[in-house]
Design brief:
By secondary structure, the protein is α+β, with helices and mostly antiparallel strands. The protein is built from 4 helices and 4 strands, in the order ββαβαβαα. About 25% of the residues lie in helices and about 20% in strands. The strands form 2 sheets. A two-stranded antiparallel sheet has the order 1-2. The chain has a two-stranded parallel ribbon with strand order 3-4. β1 and β2 form a beta hairpin.
């Protein structure tokens, strides 16, 4: 069995909240729970988090979804590529 770590961070990459889940569980099931009760200007996530339900949750927060569209999406949704690069603060080990 594998494990995934999902983490909510501030704009400087500092952890605010995290969840451990089973590796075979879909990423989208965890994202909404992590965002609950938080305010943000933008939510950055990789394409695994691209779904209409999460995008609606982010829009309801009055935040921008900075998430690349999955390849299966018929009409890709544009995202800010400059902001998306900031995702590297937590995706890549900085040590």
């Amino acid at each position: 069995m594998t494990t995934k770590i999902h983490m909510l961070c501030d704009g400087l990459g500092r952890p605010l909240r995290f969840k451990l889940i089973a590796g075979q569980r879909h990423d989208n099931l965890t994202a909404k729970a992590l965002l609950e009760g938080f305010k943000a200007e933008a939510v950055l996530a990789d394409r695994a988090y691209d779904n209409n339900d999460l995008r609606k949750t982010i829009a309801d927060m009055n935040a921008e979804a900075v998430i690349p569209s999955t390849r299966s999406r018929k009409v890709p949704i544009p995202h800010d590529e400059t902001i998306y690069k900031l995702r590297n603060l937590i995706e890549i080990d900085q040590s």
